[in-house]
Every structure is written in structure tokens, then in C-alpha cells.
Amino acid sequence: MEEVALPELQRIKPLVSKQVLEEMKSQKIRGDKAYLTEVHKKRSIEVLKTARTQIFKKYKCQPLPSIIIPPLTQLPVFILGTIMLGRLSLDPTPFDSESFLTLSTLAHPDPTMTLPIVLGILTMVNVESGNWVMNAAERQRERQIEEKHAQAQAEAGKPTIKPKAVIKFFMRGLSIFRIIIAAIAPGSITLYWVTSATFGVLQTWIIDWLDIRRRRLSEAARIQAAGQSFPISETRNK
Fold first, then answer.
1. Is residue 66 part of a domain?
2. Got a GO cellular component term for this one (predicted)?
């Protein structure tokens, strides 16, 4: 969406604006400047909305599936694992004789609150770890993308779905909520959640690192191609 679809949408904006203006002239729409500007804006937004939907379908990058599919594929396993460990922690249980780090028993909550706090930190780290593998130029590019999103939202006149922002907001709230729940949950569940969160951090970091590496290689190839074509164009100009 960010690398291909949205730039393509930006490129067709001037063409859409010109096309809408010609249609208004052919339909002989009359009025003062403010009225004509408003009509032109509304019609352009409608055309761009249709074009955006078509472009997203073309590149298979609709925002809604990106938000819905990950929880639907992961939550059932996570919930079933939590329920299973909760049942196994009910008395009588062999978890009474099992301990781990600050957990004196896996059947009762962590009395020191260490693992619940670690869980909250890991959940928050999972949200923010994407910025760790970026350099200054890439962070600047991310800010520019956010500014373009804000500009597009202002032009459309209503909020647009931002998968990354939605997921980050949800995960930040979840990090606090998980601390509260883990503080009263059996140690077996807390340990399971901490293990799952640790795996999630590693998974997110690896995926982000591979994505950043792919972008850097693509950018380097583009710069190299531009550098090789420069002497040819310069010779032609001479």
C-alpha cells in the first residue's frame, strides 16, 4: 500500500483533477468561484475513492483484511491455550509443586508482580520495535507517509482506516490490560503469556528487519539504475 498503491494514487490525482474540470466545462456548470471549487472538489474525491478501491484490489492491499485476519488466525489458539492452562491450575493440580523464577507455584499468581510487568513491557516492545531497525532517513520517510495520510484524510473530509495506527492503539491498551489480568491469573497462564509475548517480539523484529532490508536493497538498486542512466541522458543533451 505505502510503496506502490498510494504513490500510484498520488500520480493520478492531477489527471483526475483535469478530467473533472473538463467534464464540468462540457456540462456548462456555472457559478461563482467558491461554488465551482466545491463542486470540483466533491467530484474529484468521488473519482479518487473509486480509483483507490480499484488500485487496492489490483495490488491486494485492502486495509480491512490486514486488521481482521491476524487476530482471527491467532486468537483461537491463544484463547484455547489460556483456558486449558486455567483448568489445569484448579485444585487439585500438580502445578502446586512446580515453580519458575518468581513463581513459587504455577497454580497461583506471581506474588512479586514481576512476570505481569515483564508481560506488559514485552507487549509494548512488540508495538514499538519496528522503529529500532530504521535509520534516520527511513524514519523521515515514515513521517512523510503519515503526513500524506493526514492530507488525504483532510481532502476526503472524513477519517480513513490506518491499519498500523489501529493495531498500535489496540496493542498499547492491551499492554496495560494484560498486566492487570496477569496479576490475578495463575502462574501457568502468566508464564504462557510471557513466553508467547517473547516469541511475538522476536517474530516482529525479524519480519521488520527483513522488510527494511528489502526496502534498502530496492532503494539501492533504484539509485544504481538512475546513476547508470545519467551519463546517457547527459550525452544526449550535449
1. no
2. mitochondrial inner membrane
Model's pTM, two decimal places? Answer: 0.62
Number of domain units in the chain:
2
Closest residue by Cα to residue 131 from 170, 173, 174, 164: 164
pLDDT digit string (tens) for 166-215? 677 777 888 888 888 888 888 888 899 999 989 988 888 888 888 878 87
Select from 53, 45, 47, 42 the least CA-distant residue to 5: 53
CA distances in angstroms from 121 to 84, 100, 134, 202, listed in the order given: 25, 19, 21, 14
pLDDT in tens, 49-90: 888 888 888 888 877 777 788 778 888 888 999 899 888 888
pLDDT at 138: 62
Are 123 and 215 part of one and the same domain?
yes
| CB 7, CB 149: distance < 8 Å | no
Q: Please, what sign has the CA dihedral across residues 217, 139, 145, 163?
A: positive
DSSP element (H, E) containing 47: helix 33-59
**Are 85 and 203 within one domain?**
yes
